[in-house]
Amino acid sequence: MHYFTTCPSPVGTLTLACDGGGCSLVGLWIEGQKYHGGAIAGSMAEDSGAPVLAAAKMWLGRYFAGEKPAISELALAPIGSEFRQTVWQLLREIPYGEVASYASIAQKAAARMGRASMASRAVGGAVGHNPISIVIPCHRVVGADGSLTGYAGGIGTKARLLELEGAGMSSLFAPKKSTAP
C-alpha cells in the first residue's frame, strides 16, 4: 500500500506519495504531469500524517522560498529499473541552479554501468519517467543546444524551476514543439 497527500506550490498542486510505512518518498508529481502516479501499482490511500510526507512538504516550502535544501534530507525510494535508478542518481548530482545535457548524463550513465556508450534518447526516457519531480531535479536536464526540452511537467514549469534556482537562462530556450517523452 502507498499513501499520498497534496500540497499547493507556485507551479501547481503537487501530489506526494510514500511507501506503506510512511518512511520513504516514492513519488512527487506536478498537477497535469505526464506519468502521474508512475510505477505505483494499484490505488493509493490519502494520508497527510506520514512523517516523510510532512518532511517533503517542509522541504518543498524551503525550496520554493529560495533556499537550497539538500536532496539527502529526504528518504527517497523511486520505483524503477536499474537503468532508471542510475539515471535518477545522476540527476541528484546536478548542482542547484545548474543544468546538464542529456548527452552528458548518457556518458556518465554508460560509465557507471560499464558500457562503452549510452543513447541520449534512452536517458531522456528515464529522465521523463522520474517519479520524484523537483526533489530529483529532472528539470535541470536540457538539450545539448540549450533547449528546455523533454519535461513531463511542461516546459513553462521547467523554466520557472530553473529561474527560481537562479540558473543562467540566457543560453537556454524553449523549443517550438514540445518534446516531452
What does this structure look like?
The chain is α/β, with parallel strands linked by helices. It folds into two domains: 2-73, Double Stranded RNA Binding Domain, CATH 3.30.160; 82-164, Orthogonal Bundle (Arc Repressor Mutant, subunit A), CATH 1.10.10. Helix content is 30%, strand content 13%. The protein is built from five helices and six strands, in the order ββββααβααβα. A four-stranded mixed beta sheet has the order 3-2-1-4, with helices on one face. α3 crosses α4.
The low-confidence parts are: none
Please work out how many helical segments DSSP would assign.
Answer: 5
Structural class by helix and strand composition: alpha/beta
Q: Could you tell me the radius of gyration in angstroms?
A: 16 Å
**Average pLDDT taken over every residue:** 93
Quaternary class? single chain
Topology:
Layout: E1 2-7, E2 14-18, E3 25-30, E4 44-46, H1 51-64, H2 82-92, E5 100-101, H3 102-112, H4 120-128, E6 141-142, H5 155-164
Parallel strand pairs: 1-4, 5-6
Antiparallel strand pairs: 1-2, 2-3
Helix pairs in contact: 2-3, 3-4
Short description:
This protein has five helices and six strands, in the order E-E-E-E-H-H-E-H-H-E-H. The chain has helices at 51-64, 82-92, 102-112, 120-128, 155-164, and strands at residues 2-7, 14-18, 25-30, 44-46, 100-101, 141-142.
Keywords:
about 180 residues, Arc Repressor Mutant, subunit A, globular, alpha/beta, Double Stranded RNA Binding Domain
